[in-house]
Design goal:
The complex is a heterodimer of chains A (113) and B (115).
Chain A (H helix, E strand, L loop, with lengths): L2 E3 L4 E5 L4 E3 L2 E3 L5 E7 L5 E7 L5 E3 L5 E5 L4 E6 L8 E9 L4 E4 L3 E6 L1
Parallel strand pairs in A: 2-12
Antiparallel strand pairs in A: 1-4, 3-9, 5-6, 5-10, 7-8, 8-9, 10-11, 10-12
Chain B lengths: L3 E4 L2 E4 L5 E7 L5 E7 L5 E8 L5 E2 L10 E5 L2 E6 L8 E8 L7 E3 L3 E5 L1
Chain lengths: 113, 115
């Protein structure tokens, strides 16, 4: 069955430090992969997506993610975190044939001054 | 990208009553989805709503409890029926424009508290 695992429930980083949020997926075919961000009291906003091609994808707000098929991973990175990046981050995989998207449990990012 | 609005943004309801949540998209979308997000949890898909057909419900969700309408390509409603405190949650709708597969646009959510 398809699944998405985000092993870190929460992460705290200092402002200006680099960030990496982990995501592992289980899916039998080539996945469609997404990272979404949810600020408090808001809906989800798409940060970036991977469908095919270059395994390093760039997104909004300075985020990037790398698809590694051998590791079934799609980790999210940012070289320098800003206080406004504090939010909940969800990794997701798109399931072909049913147009469904399966979300990971989420990682809450805290940014300290 | 499509912009999605939801009404109400929040509500406090009494046990046993029903609440209808509206979801409006500013452009036509092929598929719309309703999710539940319980406090501190991830998103759980309730159902997929397509125009002109009955919604497709996920395991654990039934039409009698969560009736859904999809009268056109820009609008959908979700009703939470005969509510109990366990229904307290954030309800999110999303749309998929059919251009980029699986890429969904989300509404801001409806925060429901059942007393």
């Amino acid at each position: 069955a398809q699944s998405v695992t985000q092993p870190d429930i929460h992460i705290t980083v200092s402002e200006g430090a680099s960030l990496e949020l982990r995501c592992n997926y289980s899916y039998g075919a080539t996945p469609y992969l997404f990272w979404y961000v949810q600020s408090p009291g808001q809906g989800l906003q798409l940060l970036l997506k991977y469908f095919s091609g270059d395994t390093l994808v760039q997104g909004i707000k300075g985020f990037e993610a790398e698809f590694k098929r051998s590791q079934s991973s799609f980790n999210l990175r940012k070289p320098s975190v800003h206080w406004s990046d504090a939010a909940e981050y969800f990794c997701a995989v798109g399931v072909t044939g049913g147009f469904k998207t399966i979300f990971g449990a989420g990682t809450r990012l805290f940014v300290k001054a | 990208s499509a912009v999605i609005s939801q009404k109400p943004s929040r509500d406090i309801c009494q046990r046993g009553t029903s609440l209808t949540i509206q979801c409006q998209v500013d452009s036509q979308v092929t598929m719309m989805f309703w999710y539940r997000q319980q406090p501190g949890q991830s998103l759980t898909l309730i159902a997929t709503a397509n125009q002109g057909s009955e919604a497709t419900y996920e395991s654990g969700f039934v039409i009698d409890k969560f009736p859904i309408s999809r009268p056109n390509l820009t609008f959908s409603t979700l009703t939470v029926s005969n509510m109990s405190p366990e229904d307290s949650s954030i309800y999110l709708c999303s749309g998929e424009d059919g251009i980029q597969f699986n890429e969904q646009f989300f509404g801001p959510g409806t925060r429901l508290t059942v007393l």
